[in-house]
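My current task is to audit a protein record that another person submitted. What it holds is a sequence and that sequence's fold in token form. Thanks in advance; the entry in question is below.
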Amino acid sequence: MIAAPALNRRTIALVGLMGSGKSSIGRRLATALDMPFCDADAEVEAAAGQSIAEIFATLGESAFRDGERKVIARLLDEPPHVLATGGGAFMNDETRALIQQKAVSVWLKVDVDVLVRRVGRKEVRPLLAGRDPARMLTDLAHQRYPIYAQADVTVETGDTSHKTAVDAVIDALRAHLEKDAA
């Protein structure tokens, strides 16, 4: 079995739809693996000096995605860390290629009904503004799940506790590394 320290030699990039737990599970995963944590959305906001909602409203989604791509490229050049990407980041061909080259990607897969419950409790998200969250998340799942499936590792977290999800990610990463080492 591969020890936990072997898991922190490459950046671990978490991908998935909004509400899948990329940030909350990511913080706990970073702690468990004794790695720094970085949230790409927060880094985009810091670089732009605006919230994501403001970027969407003033510059549009295309400008946000361009900034997101640049920020993630910069973050992937930093020492290994756990990186929570934005829900649409892995959809960009260039960003996805960089993640596949420089990190281990982990898709946090969650059923849409669970995501609807989760995002309903959170702040307004730009892609959901003025839309039916269930319909929008269903549409996003149909568009994005085939692309997310290209991640190195898939972990179905469901409606589990953060600890259970983190343990599942660590187990999946170990299995991935053992398969690569074989």
